[in-house]
Amino acid sequence: MERAELTKAGSLKGEITPPPDKSISHRAVMFASIAEGKSIVRNFLRAEDPISTMNAFRMLGIEIEEKIPPIPPLLKGGEGGFGGELIIHGKGLHGLKEPFDVINCGNSGTTVRLISGILSGNPFFSVLTGDDSLKQRPMARVINPLKEMGADISARNGDKYLPMAIKGRRLKATDYKMPVASAQVKSCLILAGLYADGTTTIIELQKSRDHTERMLKSMGANIEIDGLILRVKGQGSRVKELSPIDVTVPADFSSAAFFVAAALIIPNSEILIKNAGINPTRTGLLDVLKKMGADIEIENIRDVSGEPVADIHCKTTSNLKAVKIGGDTMPSLIDEFPILCVLATQAEGVTEIRGAEELRVKESDRIKAMAAELKKLGVELEEYPDGISIKGKTSLKGNVVESYHDHRIAMSLAIAALAAQGATTINNPSCVDISFPGFYEELKRITR
Ligand code: S3P
User: Fold this and answer.
1) What's domain 22-235's architecture?
2) HEC string of 152-190?
């Protein structure tokens, strides 16, 4: 699909189960591959990013069986038909084999950053690369600390960018104070820590998503968490294997967020979002929406495979209020910046989001992208090096906009399009397949 055409929506009604969580899907494949024995991953996200992780571990010699759901997801009417079931035959911490070719991580920062921690501790040669976006994203944030642990890594442009070549070897534990808030960097170092001699201490700048810690601990890894300080006891040459897992991946809160926003800003809407992960390290958007006065109820809170899950009931809120958001909240809503910008256009007053410089190095420069495209829809805004301020409430006008080949930009603009007068065309809209195949069809299904 080269272009998506969207027009103003009357209302949104119904139930939706968003696709499975991307972060948890990646981790389940990775950790099951280095566990000893057979793991089952239910409701795995069959989208481009986690498939990059699955392909990578197949290249590293792991057998992964896929059971694809018999009914095409979209015919199931949003009843969680996106996921597949995987059976992963893990070979233990030291059972991976040297890949025969370069591992292409596609668009996926999580794949490349987490896997680099595993490969640094495995005694073979591997090369990692990615698509044009991933090749421009910073890798020194993992390469530098891995080198401190004794890893042998070289990468393009002074060890800053992909491709990166790793000669795995015995690692030593380190104490590392992270200069950025990043779950990808933290997870990379936790994984390297499993392979190191001694105890690796990682100090986070701010609390980032903790799916790695939760899952690895459930598998028997020796990880202690004390606020922002994490201690990982490595095995070195003495192998204490990780136990296999049987996990069900919840729906992705970051995918749910587009539907939450749509329900709030489209008149006469009411939707129930089912099975959404509500891990507090991910739901900063809910806290912000509460401050904005959004009509949202969290219902039926439960635990699924060690992660909190709930249903989210949202209704149109015509009197959303502007908010000021600083860096402290950013990690817990890092992927929701683009959709928050759209929400801000429909809130009374000036919304200011600062301390968001990390958004400049995501799949696209998301600050620049949202500033440029929202302006095309008629929004008054100001861009800062570390964020944006957006004046609401704006009557959006349809136009031709760009996705920057970034899934979350495309989906955010699609929601803006539903609120805009006239028609909106999104160029290069298929990038939604990175995290949400069938997004436009799901949106259409619940649009009246
Ligand atoms: C992710 C962490 C975040 C997030 C990304 C997924 C993860 O990146 O933006 O979409 O799965 O660990 P950073 O850790 O680099 O902030």
Assistant:
1) Alpha-beta prism (3.65)
2) EEEEHHHHCEEEEEEECCCEECCEEECCCCCHHHHHHHH
